[in-house]
Amino acid sequence: MVKIEAVIKPFRLTEVQEALSSLGVQGMTVFEVKGFGRQKGHVELYRGAEYKVSFVPKLMVLAVVPDTLVERAVEAIQKAACTGKIGDGKIFLSHIDDVMRIRTKETGPEAL
């Protein structure tokens, strides 16, 4: 199993959710996050005054998928989240040794 953590632009969430659902990914968790990378924030205008926004609002989508779905899930996220502009985000992959569904105590891929 692999944990996929994708940092995306907030307005691309619906597309990413639909792309993962179409592959059979049964669940995901979404966090509101802030950060910066090469984008380095931006300048906004508020009541006539400019101020620098160092941390840009993003969403982090977390999903754990079976090994058989990893490549397709990553590709689906990349296509759904891509605008072609700076700040589209990143996808991080981590191997997961085990998982347990609390209610039924199922473990492994069946618990996903």
TrEMBL record:
Q: What is this protein called?
A: Nitrogen regulatory protein P-II
Q: Which GO terms describe its cellular component?
A: cytosol
A GO biological-process term: regulation of nitrogen utilization
O-UMP-tyrosine occurs at 51
Question: A single GO molecular function, which one?
Answer: ATP binding
Self-association or partners: how does it assemble?
Homotrimer.
Q: Which UniProt keywords apply?
A: Nucleotide-binding, Phosphoprotein, Transcription, Transcription regulation
The record's similarity note reads: Belongs to the P(II) protein family.
Database matches in SMART domains: P-II
Q: Name one Pfam family in it.
A: P-II
> What is the superkingdom listed in this entry's lineage?
Bacteria
Q: Does the keyword Transcription apply?
A: yes
Q: Which Gene3D superfamilies match?
A: 3.30.70.120
